[in-house]
Amino acid sequence: KDNVASLHRELLDALTPLLAVPFIIMMFDEAAAGLYVLAQRLTALPVAQIGMSIGDVFQMEFARHYRAGDHTAARKVVLRFACRLVQIGVPVFALLALVAPFVFGPIFGEEWAGAGLICTMLAPSYAAALVVAPLSRVLAVNRLTHWRLAYAAVALASEIALFLTFSGGGFAETHSVYFYVGASSCLQLLC
Question: Does 173 score more than 60 pLDDT?
């Protein structure tokens, strides 16, 4: 049962960020989608590299205390890792958010400068993901993966609802891709 829920959650987790690309193409164009993909891939790197590594260590340490019945020590592990992840994530993503709009053009070429602004908009949600993703392994240790599945379903439904809301009524003609990405990033923070 837990393995099936984990598989479904992983599929939804993989699908949700990928949906933004066809949504942006449908509302705007391929160039806007390209800016988004570059920004998203670079912004996601710290989460993928740092978050997954720390998550492995966190899960082992948390599980050791939890299975031994020492729930006080397990709580302390969660708090210690959460604080460390915030100490890592806030400076990394704050620096990225501040610098990206100014360096993307010179590094990637002026046609990619807009990706720097998109990085700035994505930074808060990825900073939160750096903390939440590794700590969400608490649910696996507690065999509560169905809650992660529920979260993934809500995140996917929210992204689809955002697209449906903004795809009608001439949104693309009156707003930029930056507005859509900003709204999506805020929505991810709420989920």
Answer: no
